[in-house]
Predict the 3D structure of the following.
Amino acid sequence: MSREDRRAALPAVNRLLDEARAVGLDNSHGHNVLVGAIRDVLDRARSHGGSEPEGGWMAAIQSELERTSRPSLVRVINATGVVLHTNLGRAPLAQRALDAMQEAAGYCTLEYDIDAGERGSRHDHVRALCREVTGAEDAVAVNNAASALVLVLNALAAGGETIVSRGELVEIGGAFRIPEILAKSGSVLVEVGTTNRTRLRDYEAALSPRTRGALKVHRSNFQVRGFESEVSIAELASLFTPRALPIIHDVGSGLLVDLDAWGLRGEPLVADSVAAGAVVVCSADKLLGGPQAGLILGPAGRLDRIRRNPFARAFRPDKMVLAGLTETMRLYRDPTVARREIPVLRMLTMEPAELRRRAERIVQLVAGARTEEGQSAVGGGAFPEAYLPTTLVAIPSPHPGAVLERLRLGTPPIVARTADGAILIDPRTLQDEDLEMLAERLIAARQ
Ligand SMILES: *Cc1c(COP(=O)(O)O)cnc(C)c1O
């Protein structure tokens, strides 16, 4: 038969449908899904020259049904050691946050005041804890730090000018560019200083009757070294506060506890900016360790204006996020509890002995594997310079790329790194209970 003849000879959808029904495939997946799978299998056969799939039509339809029925957001084993891996969902959540999200999934007290038996505010859940933990007078949560910044700028600075240092006009990633955010927020950007040096008098010289405030942005991944200076929040406060103008501080990763003792320095502490009187914007799913959200913290009067802005309604988080965020914040009432219960903080402050113990456990199970001193990265733009010593597991292989692919395509997917002809596993981002399964997968992937 010629290729064209074979194509013409493909079975009709209805014939395959009858056959599939006869073996019960419509019961498990429903009529529409089954017809869709049959069409896809036929399309694929047509583009492959029109022959029957290996293993027969029914097997091909069944495997197509299984493929499209699997969830696409699945758990991944993060063996990279990058704690805040944006592609892998940033912060893994604390158990307490997860439990709260499940509790809130049905009907819940989102906007209902149980004591009064009347309507409440969704903003109240996280507000009291934010006040207690950061010292802020007031707080609002939105969907992420990017939307928080748009909201704050629109509420406080639209129709006027916002002064920003040239050294802080950064792109954070994912097309988040400070000049564009300002433009979209309706505020006119007034650039001051230079890329490497900006002084308080540069801000002072830019003040005009149209000034609505200053924006300070933590540079995250971008570093300026050598001959450089930037103006601190406290200095900015000395200039702007007497003029009743707000200082908006995008601190980025939301560090709420001091991690100096673990060699993690250089990220602004939320409480410090709050104490200086700034309106602080931060991400909730970076160092803070919560679900994806953005927090706005600061003086009550400014927060009132922010809460009344229409964007506050447009960017409001859902009940599950608010539940997870609120319970993550509750853990911060005691910093020791926060470091123990919040996975991001637990991983960042993990003892070298614990990392070594985990690495050695894997080495025991995988012949040919050895431990190696190495470094983990914080990720998410936080502590870009930090040196986090770790003990890696190195598994030499002639084809590390192929092993990496087998690890990735298995269930659950394992994401690791390679270097110098070896697979590298960083135990920092693993769970204790995954070590044995990981070892088995490494052994199988090496074959
Ligand atoms: C990550 C980051 C953001 C964006 O945070 P999202 O919560 O992802 O929107 C904004 N500003 C800074 C300084 C950041 O580091």
Observations:
- The mean pLDDT is 95.
- The CA atoms of residues 380 and 433 lie 25 Å apart.
